[in-house]
Amino acid sequence: MIRLHQIAIQIADFSMSDISIEIERGQYAVLMGKTGCGKTSILETICGLRKPTSGTVWVQDTDVTRFSPGDRQIGYVPQDLALFPTYSVGEHLEFALKLRKTPRERVNQRRDETAEMLGITHLLGRRVEGLSGGEAQRVALGRALAGEPSVLLLDEPLSALDEQTRDEMLALLQTLKDATHVTTLHVTHNRIEADVLADRRFRIVDGVIEAE
Amino acid sequence: MEDSERNPLLQSISALPSAGRLRGRREVSFDFGFSLHAASFRYPFLFFFSHVSPTPVSNRPLVPRRRSDAPFFLLMGGISSCFVLLIVLLIAADLAFTSLADFRDVLAKPEIRASIRLTLLSCTVSAILSVIVAIPLGYLLSRFQFPGRFVVDTLIDIPIVLPPLVLGLSLLILFHLPIGNSGWELESWLRDEVGFPVTYRWPAVVLAQFVVACAFAVRTMGVTFDQIDARAEDVARTLGCTRLQAFTKVALPQAGRGIVASLTIAWARALGEFGPILVFAGATRMRTEVLSTSVFLELSVGDLNAAVAVSLLMVAIAIVVLLALRVLGTRRLGMAMMSGERSR
């Protein structure tokens, strides 16, 4: 479950206030709005990368507003992916689990499961430079999912992809949704993505979030 | 092109003035026409353009204009080579002035050997210390906006802009300024209580080199971290990293080449340091003499041949060390590229 309660955000000249959203456990919510309307800031606030000026953030019935980003059990896939240039694909998938000092066998098992689910098993030994857009997207998704997050946040995951890859990724997100049932907030400006994936839709209009 | 010939709509688009200009390149003209055509369905206002009546296409004949790029290379290369030539001439003149016998003579002097040893050691120690300080300071300045950041940023530039002699004098005063009624003094405290005297001894050489070298190292590391995407560290934090872990696991491994560059520039600056060393560490033979001091000492006793020989020795040492560091830097890069290709 994700719940934002009367969140206010202030970034230089830009501000949003009274943002309240509730996404039930296992729901796939899509948040739509124009570029630059604050969608990314909302995701960053949920992750803990941005401090809201007021309001509270709830994940799985816990008020995490004062939690550090690493304690919120959130899988975040930013728009620019931000893969780690010095890590291999496999190391990306192991990253979150190794931080938690998970036993080696469990890390390997989870890495292989995630790679299998995303169809990137053949890439595990490769470095991330030179991956195609779709491959890089899968790695970023895998890095977020391998840590078994309670919530998944996707920031315009399909915007930088060519049409064919976009269709493949859309199908993949659909499969992931059915397979993992992880509570997801997907930010986009593309209606088709919302039509295919959303259980619930929100829209930002003039700094106000409306449920559709 | 065939498509556009069959399709009257596309024909009219390719007859647009801008499309006409692109005609020399077939595929561009085709792409342009096609995408505008397709786009006009999604964005009806573009339809306006696809119905513009055909305008005459340029009938200029396609003739190569034989314009040469030679003036570009002559001008740019000419100005650039002036500087390179100046450096070559400087070294060549030194080489012409000196002889092998001069080298043998200076290398036979125990003072010069001690000076070489102290130079290599002190430069290495101050370069390493500089990088140790530059990594956290460069990272903080690159990643955080904090109150007083501007002041810190400006303070770091002070050793760079301060006249070297003034820097040496300031160090000397800092260590010998009596504080309070008891007249407590940093130097005498270090000498008597800690047992580590600084002024006019080798630690003073290192400190004088460090102050300037570190400022340059901090600037280099700052640029390095500016060029590394902070988003990756943000994502690492959402995956469970503390700030320290995000720094050590994600940012630092990407900074390898910047660290080598920072080490190089700090070492080179330390080698060239003279004024502060003279004032703060003195020029005692066998004790605080580094190669830059040696040149000064040989000059002051009127031995020009020895001074030039020592200068060339410094050039040689600098070239060897800088080349070694460059190889270290490119080998890291080369290894990274190779491992990337291997796994492909």
UniProtKB/TrEMBL annotation, chain A:
Gene3D superfamilies reported in the protein's UniProt record: P-loop containing nucleotide triphosphate hydrolases
Keyword ATP-binding: yes
Protein known as: ABC transporter ATP-binding protein
UniProt-listed PANTHER family: SPERMIDINE/PUTRESCINE IMPORT ATP-BINDING PROTEIN POTA, SPERMIDINE_PUTRESCINE IMPORT ATP-BINDING PROTEIN POTA
SMART domains recorded: AAA
Highest taxon of source: Bacteria
Keywords, alphabetical: ATP-binding, Nucleotide-binding, Transport
Chain ranges of the ABC transporter domain: 2-212
Statement: the UniProt record of this protein carries the keyword ATP-binding: yes
GO MF annotation, one: ATP binding
Species of the source: Aporhodopirellula aestuarii
